[in-house]
Amino acid sequence: MTRLSTVRIAPEVCLPEFVMSPVHIICASCGSRASIPVARHGKWTYLGCVDCRSIELNPVPTDEELRQYYNTQYCVPFDEYHRRNERVSGELLRSIEASARVRGTMLEIGCSHGAFLSRAQAAGWEVAGIEISEEAAANARAQGLNVVTGRLEESGSSLGDFDCVASWHVIEHIVDVNAFLNSVKRHLKPGGLLALRTPNARALVARVIPQYWNWIEAPAHIRLFSPAGMTRLLERHGFSLCCQSTRRGDARTLGTDLLMAGAKLLVDGEARNADALTFRGNGSRAGGVTRYTDLISWPLDWILGIDGRNMLGTELFVMANHDSVTLGDGVQDGKFADLAQ
Ligand SMILES: [Zn+2]
Fold it and tell me: Whole-number mean pLDDT of the chain?
């Protein structure tokens, strides 16, 4: 039996400035002030925007709450994360290369052990990465990758500008997405490509039983974007969307997503996060069950178009070109005017 390698992220490296910045209750994606509760987790409520249907955590966790969570409950099963990324890296790279102007320089924010960067480097990209976990970053460097440990805003000046910035499952952890995207823009060449993967707030399970959706995880997941919300956010920051689709993500099929929802229903309290990660990540314990579930669920997924046809997949995949820093009316530096004080 393979034991998962888990890393507890140290407080001094786990919270970049933009994670700790205050935000506002109104929808950060579209600016709407109308929202309804869609799920609860502990003391937190997830509010669904009635306009763009993105989901936001309320109240915003304090710096201390985030520190405590990331250092006591949040474990990343990096071994499994690495294996999953290896499986999908080729597919993601092909998508990027279909939209990128050149096969030039690439930065990955939150590159973990460097599975995706390795694939990109082998394909001819000149790559760099930023990773907050020292263990994962060291593993990436051991493979010959240029990876800096720490925060984007501290490491970026030495890294330069890039033709492509990729970030997989990071933006849902960010409190101040405007500050995050402003940091991203500073490291993109004009016309450069941003590629993001993040949970899809309009996934089928998220629509039907949001309380038990796998990605409802407070306080780690601050904001779960809908396709419409992500579009509005990126356009407000001067990006032009060139591709938006949904993917199966960790769940692979609707059946697995429902299994994980069942596990979430059954497992409570502080152990839930670690158990859920183990359930979805440890092939020796749950892999057999999920393999059968996937096999049975595959035809249903195809009929419902969950593999992307109807944007119902549990993971959102977005690519956008950074064309301009010119922002629309009522917007300052990506923020809504009434919030930009
Ligand atoms: Zn909204």
Answer: 79
Measured in Å, residue 32 CA sits from the centre of ligand 1 at: 5
Residue 317 tokens read as 């995949």
Check if the beta carbon of residue 325 is closer than 8 Å to that of residue 190.
no
pLDDT at 133: 83
Terminal C-alpha separation, the chain: 54
C-alpha–C-alpha distance, residues 203 and 207, integer Å: 6
Q: Which fold has domain 6-330?
A: Rossmann fold (3.40.50)
Using the mean position of ligand 1's atoms as its centre, give its distance from the Cα of residue 150 in Å: 31
b/e per residue 204-229 (b: at least 16 CB within 10 A): bbbeebbebbbbbbbbbbbbbbbbbb
- CA distances to 79, 101, 111 from 127, rounded to whole Å, are 22, 16, 11
Centre of ligand 1 to C-alpha 243, Å, is: 20
Write out pLDDT tens, residues 226-281: 999 999 999 999 999 999 998 877 666 777 777 777 777 776 544 444 444 444 44
What separation in Å is there between the alpha carbon of 55 and the centre of ligand 1? 8
Q: State the distance from the centre of ligand 1 to the C-alpha of 236, rounded, in angstroms.
A: 13
Is the pLDDT reported for residue 308 higher than 80?
no
**Cα(227) to centroid of ligand 1, in Å?**
11
Q: What is the pLDDT of residues 76-131, one digit of tens each?
A: 666 666 677 777 899 999 999 999 988 999 999 999 889 999 999 999 999 999 98
- CA–centroid distance, 314 to ligand 1, in Å, is 19
Distance of CA 33 from the midpoint of ligand 1 (Å) = 8
Gap from CA of 229 to ligand 1 centroid (Å): 6
State in Å: Cα 172 to ligand 1 middle: 15
